[in-house]
Amino acid sequence: VTGQQRCSFTYVDDAVEMLLIVADGQAMTLPPIDVGSDDERSVTEIAKLLAGILRVDFLPDFRIERTSEVEWRRPNLSPALRLGWKPTTSLDHGLRVTCDWFARESQLFAS
Fold it and tell me: Which residues neighbour 55 within 8 Å (Cβ) at sequence distance 6 or greater?
């Protein structure tokens, strides 16, 4: 594994927004709809971004590739965009908010 596998992530608030759009519409007549982001990054890029947010050194430890490893993941957003939805939370912001949430929650369970 080289860390060059590519994927995109969706922040939970963006996914919930899409679910609400579908729930308000004709859900029974809709085909499956991908919910995601067109901000595609390599696993290495994402790990570097996360290390920067957490203020830790980026020290990758690449392992043997799994046979089921997916090299590339990117959703087809066309159907969602036609319904008026688009992701609005950047990867950077979503990671920061998620890290802040974990930091707060870990303090609740630390005592």
Answer: none
| pLDDT, tens digit, 9 for 90 and up, residues 2-51 | 788 888 899 999 999 999 988 887 656 778 888 888 899 998 999 999 99
Place of tokens 């971004």: 49
Task: Give the distance, in angstroms, between the CA of residue 86 and the centroid of all CA atoms in the same chain.
Answer: 14
pTM over 0.85: no
Q: How many other C-beta atoms can be found within 10 angstroms of the C-beta atom of residue 11?
A: 19
Rounded-to-10 torsion of CA 35, 93, 55, 48: 40
Rounded distance between C-alpha atoms, residue 43 and residue 29, angstroms: 36
Of all helices (H) and strands (E), which one includes residue 42?
A: strand 41-42
For residues 66-91, average pLDDT: 83
Cα(111)–Cα(108) distance, rounded to whole angstroms?
Answer: 7
